[in-house]
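INFO  loader      accepted 1 record
INFO  loader      residues=160
INFO  predictor   begin
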Amino acid sequence: MPLRILVVFDSRTGNTRKVAEAVAESLQADLSPVGEAGDPRGYDLVVIGSPSMSSLPSPAMRRYLQEHPGLGDYAAFFTYGAPVWGPVSVRKALAWMEAMIGRAPLATFRCKGYHTRLRTYRGRPNEDDLLSAFLFGVRLVGIVGRRSWTQRESVTESCG
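INFO  predictor   done
INFO  writer      dumping tokens
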């Protein structure tokens, strides 16, 4: 029986949506904006996507995670637009998520995205970034498929 996978995301400017679509395509997963996502408990794997905002997931994603405690296996990805601080902000957002859920994600991915106020990373995520997101999904299927239910494997990836 195939795994039931949900990719739930929040996107303000479209960057995170593009990455979510690429990940969902590779996983053949259900795709849902956070405001429309239901209870994730019926899924074998939930992939959470959010922009990194002030070193946290977006407010809507934080609310979703707080409203759905007991999340099962999950992976996470973040988009960011701030040079230098962006990767640090993503690490802090992942730490918040891990503390909220009570364990580390199976895998993580981060991707640059155009920041509308700072005007950084124009044209990102680009085709290469989206291919990296798609391949993250492919590798995630391998992680979930080959690990035992008691063994956790953590993978961190990023695009260009």
